[in-house]
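Help! Submission page says 'invalid entity' but I think these are all valid:
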Amino acid sequence: MRRALALIAAIALTGALVISAAAAPAVTPTRGGTLIVGSGVDAVTLDAPMITDSPSATVSEHMVESLYRLTPEGRIVPMLALGHTVSADGRTWTIRLRTGVRFHDGTPFDAEAVKFNLDRMLDPATRAPFRFLISRITSVTVVDSSTVRLVTDAVFAPLLAHFTHSSVGMQSPTAVRRLGVDYARQPVGTGPFKFKEWVRGDRVVMTRNDDYWGEKAFLDEVQFRVIPDDGSRVAALEAGSIHVAVRVPPREIERLKTARDFTVFVNDSLRTIYVGFNVTRPPFNDVRLRRALNHAVTKTAIVNGALFGTARVSDAPIVPAVEGYSKIMTYEFDLERAEALLREAGYSRARPLRAVFHHPSGRYIRDAEIAASIQGLVRRAGIELELRTMEWGAYLALTNRPQPENDVQMYMLGWGTVTGDADYGLYALFHSSQWVPTGSNRSFYKNDRVDALLDRGRTTVDQAERNKIYAEAMKIIMDDAPWLFLHSESQVTGIRHTAQGVVVHPAERIELFKAWIRR
Amino acid sequence: MWAYIVKRLLLAIPVILGVAFMVFAMVRLVPGDPARIIAGEAATQEIIEGIRKDMGLDRPLLKQFATFMGNALRGDFGRSVRSKAPVAGEVAARLPNTVRLATAGLFVAIVVGVSAGIISAIRPYSWMDTVVMLIALAGLSMPVFWSGLMLILIFAVWLGWLPAVGTGGMAHLVLPAVTLGMSTAAIIARMSRSSMLEVLRSDYIRTARAKGLAEAAVVNRHAFRNALIPVITVVGLQMGTLLSGAVLTETVFAWPGIGRLLVEGILSRDYPIVQASVLVVAMAFVLVNLMVDVLYAVVDPRIHYD
Amino acid sequence: MTRPLSRSRIRMVWVQFRRNRAGLVGLAILTMFLSAGLFAPVLAPYDPYEIELESGLKKPGPGHLLGQDELGRDMLSRVIYGARLSLVIGVIAVTIGVGIGVPVGAISGYFGGLPDLLVQRLIDVMLAFPGILLAIVLVAILGVGLVQVMVAVGIVSIPVYARLVRGQVLSLRSQEFVDAARAVGARSGRIIWRHVLPNTLAVIVVQSTLQIASAILSAAALGFLGLGAQPPAAEWGSMLSNARQYIRLAPHSVMFPGLAIMMTVLGFNLLGDAIRDALDPRMRI
């Protein structure tokens, strides 16, 4: 990965990534204790292939591991796999698996288990939202107990990157079969922590897996507590009732600088925040209106206001740390232009453009506030948006409906390109085969040229060539404006000094694999 | 007395049935297909069909209600849309927190309310009385969710004495309990003041004073107990304020109780959760009222029931 | 029993009322509230919806007397417009409550029998939902939003009026003047309308002042829970719900909307008590 270096550089600029190393390199970790993370939203599901959001993935990855892993530095390293070979035609992959690994329920992790998990995700009946990650696989065969062979229908460049995704996590076939629909509440994986309990809307608790195949965790117990209110989460951190607070409101950074017991870190994220339009229905089937909104919003004001400068105005649908990124363009703030476009499309102050704008609350940094800012900003161009705030789970369900019944006009979302590869950041969102509920194309965007380019990007191995393909695709996408392009977030995390070794991963995960409590 | 209690119990039955019917009818009144509403937007067609069969939507309404009641009595409220887990478990996990909060709130309300009322009544129309009654009036007009925020501002943000939100030790309970108890305390204070005043003016107190008993003894031994009876009534009447106040208080303090479960349920359109939590809170209210009435019959021998 | 509100009676009541200091304070508060509500566009120094992202959460100062909220909107203007919204909520809710509750209570009380029994049980059931819970249930059915909240809060006040009026009608039904009207052959509808209801007017007026307060409070509570008015509405409850995120950075944004709710409710409570006392001095505790 050529971009890996850039990623490291960016992280170094924005703060220590591995916090323990920065704080106390010489101290030896102590075993024991409970570490509590205050998160903004509860996990939605803990059945790996059904996970679509990083809060769920963060919890899940402590218990369920994938074949490969994307390190915080942006490298792909083997996890439950030991290594792989690819045939000369690039379509047959042979993956060797780690031996002697068992799931938390004692079921052996072997080639059969891998086949079970991959087949389950590939089965359309499972309705795995991120099936596209591995959809190019046509067959999974067990060679022997520690080797699987995969055949893809074409050369599939990002496969290894996709194997790092938490959706492709390896779960105990026994438990999945036995628990059925209840599995989603009590996952069984191979990870360094075992599931203990999940009190809906309050906390998920895990305990150390003492039979872990790798280096065992230091902590006895890990808790992810749900504290939806940003201010409350910060208060809990200040009071010491939690060790880590995710999504600290950026406005608070200044005030919290004086805190003695904890530090607020600003880390890069692979996430882009955007407002999508449904391009198949009026009014936003008219590209002029989509462009008008892009021109009417002062992105810098949002970045400097609600986000206190901790974000970066988007100049492409993906962030610079993603492999395949290049700078495309930014819609300049231009009220006259916006109004001219609106007039062209038949709207005026007397007959203003009206639309309903759905947005989540508590999912992204200051999401509701940003939505309200957008509403207030476009008001100046004579656009009247009606805001609909929704709870995360219901919001996802609402925007996830198939095109014929999906009447959402405008919706705010973020996409973390957690595999670090442009395919994941573009294919899932803009390819016409990925319309929800199959994929994540909630705008129902369809452009044959873009489809062809994204298909070529997947099957091209040469990275320079891929970059060119993606640049062309992104240019068309930004011109078509199926989104109101906003910004890329940073992760603002408060960590108490007693909590050591906490890792803030650019894929928006808090990792506690090697964390410990200093006494 | 027993006849009265039995009668009171029998009278509660239509109310309980009515409440259950309203909760049952709720999802049928929401625009859209009830099965889909119960299953959630994201549910597959098979799940919706399954629920349609379970609910028996093709059968007569009363039969559907009978099924609903039968399930509810067995503690079966279906599965949560969001978590796919049985609703009963989610409610059971939250209920103890609400009970804890409501009990603590009630405690604050009674202790603060009764003492404020007595302080006022001992020297009526003094500056002390005026101040206490003004505070009571303010407490009465202050919305629970705002007084909670003000308490957080003062005791957690400015003074840093108490944790602002969440659950944990006793310290976490203080602010929510005070918030919840405040408006009820105000009502109890007003009630116990007037009740105390009435008792202090009564003949037997005058007799007690005439016997030369110390004022403290008069208040403690005679007046207090008799003044308490109307206060008990008020406490009973205030259980509703307390329960609905809990819904708001839980939101202010991120207290994982049944009230927050209900609000989260509505915001996430998780109707099985909404149904179960509404039913539990309303039933609790009906039962508490019943208990207060029965208790009243037991403690007050002066009242005769026919 | 209470008497109908004749002109001379109103004058007498006013004489009584003027002696009540608390009532006058309440009246003063409510005058402020009413004028804020009615003349909001004139009184508000800024457009309550105009954002100024660069000066979000600014503390109170000469330009913005109550400071600015997280989007840089003028707090004073929003609080003033909040009075307007609350006024609308209160009036609509009470209109629904009176419009349905009074006839239901009157008919149920006048005729008695099975309909009365059914209405009474229905009211029992509605009152079995403590406080704001019934409004929450209604919002769960109707959906989240300002209009839905007005309807929900209005429906919640129906049983209050129905029960009140029914009690009044029950005691009036056997009065001589009603008997007299019946004797001359007046129809029931006419008797209720001409003879019974005017006599209940006083209690309805008293109840309504208290009911407006309770409607405003409930609507604000729903707004606070996120079930009521949606952003960017300048509604006190939802303003509080937004502002509490910034309780540490900008306490002013939490103080003023809450203060506005408290003052308004206090005003109505004081006024309601005073009117009640003035109408019937014996009702005083």
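Support: the input was valid. A stray whitespace character was the problem, and the output above is from the cleaned input. Chain A has three domains: 1-60+191-267+491-519, 64-177, 271-489.
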